[in-house]
Amino acid sequence: MPRVLHLEAEDLPDPNVLHTDDGYYVYATNVPDVNVPVVYSPDLTNFTLVGDAMPVLPAWARPGFTWAPDVVQVGDRYHLYFTARLRGSRLQVIGVATSDHPEGPFEATDRPLLTMLDQGGAIDANVLQASDGTQYLYWKNDGNAVKKATHLWGAPLSADGLTLAGAPTDLMTATEAWEHNLVEAPQVIEDEGRFHLLYSCADFQDETYAVGHATGLTPLGPFSKYRAAPLLASQGRIAGPGHSHAFRTATGQWQLAYHAWEAGRCGYPHGRRALYVSPLHLSADQAHVALPLDLAQASD
């Protein structure tokens, strides 16, 4: 039976939100016994756990490492882009799965979409469906898994969304002190002729984790960072906010979904990465996330 969720008590890391005519679906990184948790909300206020969007993993994937899902609608079908551990390897790679329904079940292709094993693997897939009809895939090479630099990458996708349609472009790496030598979880969104690159940085396990912002004139950049400070960082009751996903509501307003620890309770096993959704305001070169007062106020 579907279970009503109290979000601040749930562990829903790396959230991704799909808006459909029926409401909103939220997908998250695996939790025990669930490869891709999927949550439904009709109004972004009430949330119900639907189940596992991909209950059967492909043969090439090891269980227990299914991270950072991204679901997009392509024609009358739905595509799930996901990170998983490659069997026979300690590295993560990116796969794609398809379904007729947003809640799944999704069936993965028989081989990964992207590996980049020489760069530590590939994680954190996200897709932009640009206004000209072109699709782009964005991801991170998991360099920190093999003591290499992390970069954010992008490439055009084929019309069916199942293969790359061009060579990867290196979009950026960590350059600012507050990024702590690590960037990940890229998402590019399009707004009034500008492309906004949102990304996470630092260590997801503690309060340094944050969301950065950059802008460009094309889906593949070049992107210019806003260097003064992160777009979203620890504040009040939330600690280490990150792995964000921007989406439009039914009224066309931008919102930002992200996970965060509770201040003073960062890291497993004592903490949890709860889901939050906040208004996102964009201008040509700037962005602002409006936190509710009960989150932004100083913690007790």
From TrEMBL:
The record marks D124 as: Important for catalytic activity, responsible for pKa modulation of the active site Glu and correct orientation of both the proton donor and substrate. SUPFAM superfamilies: Arabinanase/levansucrase/invertase. The active site is at D14, E184. Pfam families: Glyco_hydro_43. One of its GO terms (molecular function) is hydrolase activity, hydrolyzing O-glycosyl compounds. GO terms for biological process: carbohydrate metabolic process. The keyword 4Fe-4S does not apply. InterPro entries: Glyco_hydro_43, Glyco_hydro_beta-prop_sf, Glycosyl_Hydrlase_43. This is Glycoside hydrolase family 43 protein.
